Amino acid sequence: MRPPAASSVAVAVADVNRREPARLDPVASAAIELGGAAVTVGGRTIWSEATLEIDPGEFVAVLGPNGAGKSTLLRVLLGQQPLTAGTVSVLGSAPRAAKQEIGYLPQRHAFDETTRIRGIDLVRLGLDGARWGLPLPGRSADRRRVEEAIELVGAGDYARRPIGECSGGEQQRLLIAAALVSRPRMLFLDEPLDSLDLPNQTAVAALLNRICRAEAMTILLVAHDVNPLLAHVDRVVYVAAGRILSGPPGQVIRSETLSELYGSPVEVLQTSDGRLVVVGQPEAPHHHSDRHAHP
Amino acid sequence: MNPHFSLNPVTDFHQLIVYPFMVNALEAGTIVAVMASVVGWFMVLRRQTFAGHTLSLMSFPGASAAALVGVSLSLGYFSFCVVGALAIAAGSRTAGRRDFGQESAVIGTVQAAGLALGFLFLSLYGGILENLEELLFGSFLGITTTQVHTLAAITIGVLVFFLVAGRPLLYSTVDELAADARGVPVRLLQVAFLVMLGLAVGATAQITGVLLVFALLVAPAAAAQQLTARIPLSLGLTVLFALAIIWVGLTLAYFSAYSLGFYVATIAFALYIACRLSRTAVERIGRTTAAPAIA
Known about the structure:
CATH architecture of chain A: 3-Layer(aba) Sandwich
Helix content of chain B: over 70%
Shape of chain B: globular
CATH topology of the domain at 24-212 in chain B: ABC transporter involved in vitamin B12 uptake, BtuC
Distance between the termini of chain A: 20 Å
Order of helices and strands of chain B: HHHHHEEHHHHHHHHH
CATH topology of chain A: Rossmann fold
Structural class of chain B: mainly alpha
Number of domains of chain A: 1
CATH class of chain A: Alpha Beta
Radius of gyration of chain A: 19 Å
CATH class of the domain at 24-212 in chain B: Mainly Alpha
Number of strands of chain B: 2
Shape of chain A: globular
Strand content of chain A: 15-25%
Oligomer: heterodimer
Number of strands of chain A: 11
Low-confidence stretches of chain B: 291-295
CATH superfamily of chain A: P-loop containing nucleotide triphosphate hydrolases
Number of helices of chain A: 8
Strand order of the largest sheet of chain B: 1-2
Radius of gyration of chain B: 20 Å
């Protein structure tokens, strides 16, 4: 639960950062830092010797084959999964301490028609769902903030419809609003493009890019396919073969880099419309094994 | 004096409260309707109606154990419902999160075990349960003042739980992973909710009988959620529906020869059908007047 004193301090810090962007401070600490980090789940080392530095305000795509440990990386950064070696710091402190500063959008199945609450209620729960009390209409400041978040994702037209009756793309926008509404400094999204059709994937990627720049927010997005994100992301974090590699998309998604990462020949091909296709990447041995591990 | 229904509501009301047993029945019915409907609203949203059904059947081993040991029926009901709730809560999570498949398997197992225990207690008791029909289909004739006080105390406890934990419970119902990441104690809330469900079911079964608990637990919430997705309105309608069902049911049972359980269940069923049909009608009209929404 969010202790009132701590939360007001946290909000104050966030507001100060907003007014004085990180670029004014050349020695601003990284938003996320991993140093020689390793994770073992159920006796299997997911990845090790991971060193990573992400600057505040970066839009980052986390890529890699199924079961390579992308979701595990998010869970480490959320403080839900301890490291077996190395260090991790989020916003300059331990992940658990930074929890209130992170908006998190878990990997999910869509809401079906039986979920009889409205989109706006879901967004509102993102703001005050962790507070004790009844789910009744609350303070007008909170209501305004909910409306702002809905505006920001462009969900005004359908926010008052039952969420189960919204399309996949609409639900995804409402979920993003729910993750944004508490004004976090970072946003973690676990495969938000997964269940969307191509036009919606592109639109959501562009929306996140806009939010990243407008709100000076650090965004980490786990994805299967880099292509809808290529035009938008500053950095790619590639999780594969028990290692984590990070850099600008053009440097990481290259035949030489990925071949070295996998330790086997991998080719990155570019289609005539600029899309990247990775050929020959071996799938991780334990298919999807990281998603349901939730100790 | 045999009661005769007249068209004058004042006379009818006076006739209703002539006998103390009827006053007790009205009080107990009102109390139980409020508790069952609020718990039922969350239960329907959480898709735990099977758990509610199983917990209501726990009243059978509860009643036979009470007869065997020689304690009050209420004590038997409540203790078995709560134990059943704890058993379901203990078995229904996989790797720390709600697992719907496993949950229903566990609930089915608990149900079978409970019924077997009830049969065992009955054999050990040697006799037949005197009020088997009452147990199964409910009665309003024998409700004592002590019973009313017990029901009131339990209802106050249950309502305080929702006053305090309603919002985080809703958050963990709608988006458990996001709620967990924000620090909502989702595991604790799940156990606590099942215990509240056990208490509500144990109380409702004393009025409607074991088999017709659904009339007050499921039908009002399911009907209200058909009509609206607005949380306060939907909760309010749920409580109103439950009160209407029990009041009309008691009145009809009092002025006629048929049992309370029959009336309560029939009214509840009719109400649900009416709400379902009106939702379909409203959606039809909406579809013909408005252009279909585009994602």
